[in-house]
Each structure stands twice: as structure tokens, then as C-alpha cells.
Amino acid sequence: MKESALCPRLSKAMELVGKRWTALIIYQLLEGPQRFNAIESALPISGRLLSERLKELEKEGIVERKVFSEVPIRVEYNLTKKGQSLEQTVREIENWAKSWL
Amino acid sequence: MKESALCPRLSKAMELVGKRWTALIIYQLLEGPQRFNAIESALPISGRLLSERLKELEKEGIVERKVFSEVPIRVEYNLTKKGQSLEQTVREIENWAKSWL
DNA sequence: GTAAGCTACTTACTTTTCGTAATCTATAAA
DNA sequence: TTTATAGATTACGAAAAGTAAGTAGCTTAC
């Protein structure tokens, strides 16, 4: 996607947070660290996309991945500081939705 | 897209505002009423998609379409109250972007 | 009177992303 | 050897986005 000349930052933010499922994944992780299956169950998202999104978010430094070498394997995801800083933003969207949808 | 059992409102809001280009179109319209070509020039969006998005936003009551039967024809788009109510939300995303991107 | 120009779309076509379901990896217990 | 579990990957058809050309209605220029 080309960048908006208007506001590159907002453009970049929307490219990231506005991507399908991303905001909902972050919203879910605001509850605390969670495993792959827990997130998958909480949202109507498929494993394929969840895996893809989590990788993107990890790459952006928004989500942290922690592997526990148990049997069976356990993997937890949690928000980094950068990820937590999105709480206000997500809440603001939520509030708007409560008032207007 | 299926609805999130977790938070249907946030889900609905993201479906709307999180759609590609939508937030940027609203951001642009916060400057005041604008014509089709003006929006198209301000953003790296194609006429095809801009037309599609404006229709969606009009249907959701976020944008108002006003036709002036001049020559050549003039069409202006502006935010409704519901649309204006998104200002805080968009600014919040912008602020986050300024701090973290 | 026909050709060209303006604005706001619309259509046809290609590329990218999404959604669903099946499959894979590693480990251990039955 | 088969089964089970968690996390992830792959294959493929469907949907959405991107690109570029075309349309409609009206005006002015030639």
C-alpha cells in the first residue's frame, strides 16, 4: 500500500492496527498473556491468519512470543510496552462503538 | 466476517473504521467538506475504491453527499455528526503513531 | 456540428489477501 | 504402532484491492 502524503504516521498506524483482526487480537491480549489456542477460541479467526498476524505483531514489537518446552508444547503471547500503549487507542474505538453503533 | 463473541461492538467498529482507507478518508474530511477529486488527490487511493468507500460511509451515516448541479458538476462530501464523533478516535490513533512509530 | 475538456464515476482485468480444511512436527502415553 | 495434543503450515478457491481504460452529461472552441 502506498503511503498517504497527508499523514504518513496515521497511514502506517492504520496499516498495522487497522489490518483485519489485529485490533481484536490486541484487545484480547489486554486480558493478559494467552496461548495460541485461547486466542483462536476467543475470536472467529482461523489458525492460519492468527499465526500470520501474530508474526507481524511480533515483528513490529507489539507482541512477545514465549515458548515453554513442555509436552505438549505451550506457547504464550503477551503485549510488549508498545503493545500495551495501544490500550487507550483500542478503548477509544470501543467507546465510540458503544455510543454510535 | 464473522462477529467476535468477545466484543461485538469493537468488532463492528473495526469492520467499519478499520477497513482499508476508511480512517484516512475520515481524517481528510476532518479538514472540512471536500470534493471527490480533492480526496482522491490527497490520498494514494484510486477512484474505484474511493467511490466504493464513500458509498459505504454514506450508508453508515458517517458521510454526507451533496450534489451541486453546476457545470461541470460538483459533488461534496462531508462528515455527519456521527462522522465527526470519530475525530477523537482518529486523533488517538494519530497520537499513538506519533509516539510509537 | 464535432471535437475536446471537465468532473464524477464505472467497468474490465490482474494481483493480493482471506477463509476453510487438510497436513505437518515433536513428544509422550496407551 | 497407533493415538493424542498444541502450534503451526500448506493448498486452493473466494473475496477484496489495485490499475487502467472507458462512460455520462454538459460546455466551450474551432
From TrEMBL, chains A, B:
<keyword id="KW-0805">Transcription regulation</keyword>
<feature type="domain" description="HTH hxlR-type">
    <location>
        <begin position="7"/>
        <end position="101"/>
    </location>
</feature>
<keyword id="KW-0238">DNA-binding</keyword>
<dbReference type="InterPro" id="IPR002577">
    <property type="entry name" value="HTH_HxlR"/>
</dbReference>
<keyword id="KW-0804">Transcription</keyword>
<protein>
    <submittedName>
        <fullName>Helix-turn-helix transcriptional regulator</fullName>
    </submittedName>
</protein>
<dbReference type="InterPro" id="IPR036388">
    <property type="entry name" value="WH-like_DNA-bd_sf"/>
</dbReference>
<dbReference type="InterPro" id="IPR036390">
    <property type="entry name" value="WH_DNA-bd_sf"/>
</dbReference>
<dbReference type="Pfam" id="PF01638">
    <property type="entry name" value="HxlR"/>
</dbReference>
